[in-house]
Amino acid sequence: MLDLSQKYNMYVTRICNNKGIPKKRLIFLKKCISIQLMRERTFSSSDFPEITPNNFRQYISRLKNFIEVDIKSSCYYYRVKNVPLSRHEEIVTDDPMGDRLLLMLQHIKEQPVAIHNIKIKFESNLYSVLSQNPNIKINSINKGIILNFELISNYRTKFVIYPNIIQIDIACTYTPVLYNIQGAFLLNSLLTLIRQRLTELGNDQVDISNFNDWILTHYHFGRDGKEEWNGKSFHITVKDALNQLVRYYSKEMKDKKRYGRMEIVKSPKIKISEELEKMSIPEVNNEFVN
C-alpha cells in the first residue's frame, strides 16, 4: 500500500500536472490536497489564516474546476474533486446497510461527547523573532514557520507561525478531549504549556497574550464507538433536527482496528474562555442531537 507522501505526490501529479495553474493557486491547491490526505477531512477558510477570507473565496472560485463544496453550513467546507478523505474511502462503492450498522450507530450515541482536531488562532509578532534565527526553517509553500510538539502525551500540537498570526492545531483524533469538566481541566493544562513554550521561543522578547483570549476557530464535536467495526468502510453525512450536518464514518485507530465515529464540525470563533466555561456545564453535552 502506498504511504501518505507517495499518495500525496500521486494526486498532485494527477490533478495539477499540465493544467497551467498559476503558482499561487497551485500552492493553495496543494495545501488543500494535503489536508484531505494527511488530516483525513475537508477544509475551510480557517485552515488558511495566512490569507484573508475574501482571498480564500477568490481561490475557491478560480479553482472551481478542481474544488467542490462538501458541506454548506455557517462555515462552508470544501474538498478537492477525486481526492479521498481517508485511505479507506477509495473502496467505498455504496452506502452500508443492515441491522448491525444501525445497532452500532445507536451504541455510539450512548458514548460520552468529546472534541478533536482543535484549531486556535491569535495575533502575535513572534514571527519577527523566529525568522531571524538561522536554525528556524520557513515553509516554502505558505511562508509560515511550522513547529511540532507533544507537550502532553498523545496530544500532538502544531504551531503555524505567520508574520501577524499564530495558529495552534491540536491533532488529538485518537485521544479526543472529553467535553466535560475533566476535559476542560486537560485543555486548560495543555494551553498553559503551549503559552509557556511560545514564550520560551520568543526568548521573552515577545508578549504572548493570555490563552483565555485566544480564538477557537474549529473543532470536531462527537462520539466514538467502543466496539470494533469489521464491516465495509463508510462515510455518511446527514442533517439532524437542528439542521446541523452530522457525519458518521469508520475511523481506523492506533491499534489498526476500525470503530464508528459520529461528529459535527463546528466553527465557533469565540474566545477559549467561553468554550471552557461551556465544557464545565453538564447540560451542554445534550447539544449533540440523538
Structural notes for this entry:
With 290 residues, the chain is an alpha+beta fold. It has two domains: 4-80, Arc Repressor Mutant, subunit A, CATH 1.10.10; 90-290, no CATH class. 29% of the residues lie in helices and 28% in strands. It contains seven helices and twelve strands. The chain has helices at residues 4-16, 23-38, 53-62, 99-108, 126-130, 181-201, 272-279; strands at residues 67-71, 77-80, 114-123, 145-152, 155-161, 165-171, 177-178, 215-228, 235-239, 245-252, 258-266, 270-271. The strands form two sheets. Strands 3, 4, 5, 6, 7, 8, 9, 10, 11 and 12 form a ten-stranded antiparallel sheet that branches. Helix 1 packs antiparallel against helix 2 (23-38). The two termini are 37 Å apart. 28% of the residues are buried.
Binned strand content: 25-35%
Q: Supply the number of helical segments.
A: 7
How can the largest sheet be summarized?
10 strands, antiparallel
Classification by helices and strands: alpha+beta
Short description:
With 290 residues, the chain is of the alpha+beta class. It contains seven helices and twelve strands.
Descriptive labels:
7 helices, globular, Arc Repressor Mutant, subunit A
Could you outline the blueprint of secondary structure elements for this entry?
Blueprint lengths: L3 H13 L6 H16 L14 H10 L4 E5 L5 E4 L18 H10 L5 E10 L2 H5 L14 E8 L2 E7 L3 E7 L5 E2 L2 H21 L13 E14 L6 E5 L5 E8 L5 E9 L3 E2 H8 L11
Helix pairs in contact: 1-2
